[in-house]
């Protein structure tokens, strides 16, 4: 069995180290309606970040306010 020879202490130490590693990472999904103000600044203790851009749900003119539609000629 894989890992059968590892002691509980070793597994506990590994789990603690893995938790610390995950806590120092930032995973973020950003839509295009989100301004980029805070994501370009450094955050203390974070050495790695994974930022994903999403188009979900896909944008349609129906998402515009009536004022924006009128201003851009969508009505």
Describe this structure in words.
With 75 residues, this protein is an alpha+beta fold. It has a domain at 24-37 and 44-75. It contains two helices and two strands; from the N terminus they run H-E-E-H. It has a two-stranded parallel ribbon with strand order 1-2. The longest helix is centred in the first third of the chain and has 16 residues, at 8-23. The radius of gyration is 22 Å and the shape is elongated. The chain starts with 7 loop residues before the first helix and ends with a helix. The model has no long low-confidence stretch (mean pLDDT 65). The chain crosses the membrane at residues 12-34. InterPro entries: FSCA_dom_sf. Keywords: Membrane, Transmembrane, Transmembrane helix.
Secondary structure: elements and pairs:
Blueprint: H1 8-23, E1 25-31, E2 48-54, H2 66-72
Parallel strand pairs: 1-2
Briefly say what this structure is:
With 75 residues, this protein is of the alpha+beta class.
| Ends apart, CA distance between termini | 67 Å
Contiguous low-pLDDT stretches (5 residues minimum) are: none
Number of helices: 2
The helix-strand sequence is HEEH
Mean pLDDT equals: 65
Beta-strand content estimate:
15-25%
The gyration radius over C-alpha positions equals 22 Å
Largest sheet: 2 strands, parallel
Helix fraction? 25-40%
Q: Total strand count, please?
A: 2
Describe the strand arrangement of the main beta sheet, using strand numbers. 1-2
User: Which structural class best describes the helix and strand composition?
Assistant: alpha+beta
InterPro entries: FSCA_dom_sf
Keywords: Membrane, Transmembrane, Transmembrane helix
